[in-house]
């Protein structure tokens, strides 16, 4: 495998990030979701420009090709873009709140190579540098095994309910970012 580079996402990455999010959702979620659920998932699996503006979103590249993306946030929103219902751009207090691990996607041709794990570790390290000692995320059924293997625990299982009533199963997961 070629060397993987992780760098901060910029606005010039936005179109490629959007394509990657769509491709990963369409192909990888087929294992666990119906075609209708995938269609509805694509409404939530959209780039959150706030993450790029905050400098907390990253892209992983191999030979100059984007193979994964993901990051973290110091804002209340747990998943979805800033324009989705239920989002909040207020800042969190690192002393009392968990950093939000956000929007991790890997190109289907690059899964199971440790890239998602590497990107998640990078985001966690960045959150620690900013004073966070805990992390929280929303996992899809497909993503949950990765997060479990990285030390996250499921604290709640629920459904994201789409405007048309379609239910997408998700899990709230948490992890301590303290060493040891």
Largest sheet: 7 strands, mixed
Average the pLDDT over all residues and give the rounded result: 93
Helical proportion, percent range: 25-40%
What is the β-strand count?
Answer: 7
Task: Write up what this structure looks like.
The chain has 180 residues and is of the alpha+beta class. The chain has one domain: Aminopeptidase, CATH 3.40.630. It has five helices and seven strands, in the order βαααβββαβαββ. The protein has helices at residues 14-28, 35-44, 49-54, 115-129, 144-149, and strands at 4-8, 57-62, 65-73, 99-106, 134-140, 153-161, 167-176. It has a seven-stranded mixed sheet with strand order 1-2-3-4-5-7-6. A hairpin with a 2-residue loop joins β2 and β3. α1 (14-28) packs antiparallel against α2 (35-44). It is globular, with a radius of gyration of 15 Å. The two termini are 30 Å apart. The relative contact order is 0.17. The model has no long low-confidence stretch (mean pLDDT 93).
């Amino acid at each position: 495998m070629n060397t993987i580079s992780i760098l901060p996402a910029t606005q010039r990455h936005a179109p490629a990030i959007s394509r990657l999010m769509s491709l990963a959702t369409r192909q990888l979620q087929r294992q666990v979701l119906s075609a209708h659920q995938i269609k509805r998932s694509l409404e939530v699996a959209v780039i959150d420009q706030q993450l790029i503006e905050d400098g907390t979103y990253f892209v992983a590249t191999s030979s100059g090709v984007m193979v994964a993306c993901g990051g973290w946030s110091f804002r209340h929103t747990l998943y979805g873009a800033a324009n989705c219902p239920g989002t909040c751009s207020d800042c969190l207090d690192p002393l009392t709140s968990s950093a939000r691990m956000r929007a991790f996607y890997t190109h289907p041709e690059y899964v199971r190579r440790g890239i998602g794990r590497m990107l998640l570790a990078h985001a966690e390290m960045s959150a620690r540098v900013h004073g966070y000692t805990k992390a929280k995320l929303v996992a899809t059924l497909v993503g949950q095994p990765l997060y479990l293997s990285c030390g996250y625990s499921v604290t709640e299982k629920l459904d994201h309910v789409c405007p048309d009533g379609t239910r997408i199963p998700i899990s709230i997961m948490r992890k301590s970012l303290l060493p040891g």
